[in-house]
């Protein structure tokens, strides 16, 4: 029973921690973010396993984590508020070529990140070519270009 409680507590703690720290997808993490994730995984291993390093204990912890993940995904499907709480909503970062600095600061996205997405997705080079830039729920930045007239 100790493994189930430890697994649930660590899972929920890390979920809350990463939810509070922002919307970055794994595709957009920096080397620093990656190193931090590795360190966190090593640190949380001790909290999950404790003094029991048996295969049974490890399997029980993994099953607990997977079960929690499935349960939360089912809750997100059933209740939209849980979905918003866990995954947030898309956030407009550029409106008609204007940077929305407060929103960008909140999610720690810089102008360079937006311009990089604009070049990669639409071949755009300047902010005035962007109608909207939206930070999606998965951490990707979607660019909607101004219409060419």
Structure description:
The protein has 2 domains: 2-87; 91-145, CRO Repressor, CATH 3.30.240. The mean pLDDT is 82. 60% of the residues lie in helices and 12% in strands. Helix 1 packs antiparallel against helix 2, helix 1 (2-21) crosses helix 3 (55-78) and helix 3 (55-78) packs across helix 4 (80-87). The protein contains 6 helices and 4 strands, in the order H-H-H-H-E-E-H-H-E-E. The longest helix has 24 residues, at 55-78. The protein has a 4-stranded antiparallel beta sheet. By secondary structure, the protein is an alpha+beta fold.
Please tell me how large the radius of gyration is.
20 Å
Our count of helices gives 6
Percent strand: 5-15%
Shape: elongated
List the quaternary state of the chains. single chain
Helical content (DSSP H or I, runs of 4+):
55-70%
Question: Which characteristics define this entry?
Answer:
single chain; 149 residues; alpha+beta; CRO Repressor; 2 domains; 60% helix; elongated
What is the gist of this entry?
With 149 residues, the chain is α+β, with helices and mostly antiparallel strands. It has six helices and four strands.
């Amino acid at each position: 029973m100790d493994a189930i409680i430890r697994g649930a507590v660590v899972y929920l703690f890390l979920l809350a921690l990463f939810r509070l720290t922002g919307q970055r997808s794994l595709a957009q993490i920096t080397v620093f973010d990656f190193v931090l994730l590795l360190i966190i995984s090593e640190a949380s291993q001790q909290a999950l396993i404790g003094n029991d390093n048996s295969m049974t204990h490890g399997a029980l912890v993994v099953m607990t984590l997977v079960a929690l993940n499935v349960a939360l995904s089912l809750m997100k499907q059933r209740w939209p508020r849980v979905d918003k709480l866990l995954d947030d909503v898309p956030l407009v970062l550029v409106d008609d070529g204007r940077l929305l600095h407060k929103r960008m600061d909140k999610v720690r996205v810089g102008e360079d990140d937006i311009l990089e997405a604009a070049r990669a997705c639409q071949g755009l080079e300047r902010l005035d070519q962007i109608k909207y830039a939206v930070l999606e729920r998965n951490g990707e930045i979607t660019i909607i270009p101004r219409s060419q007239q």
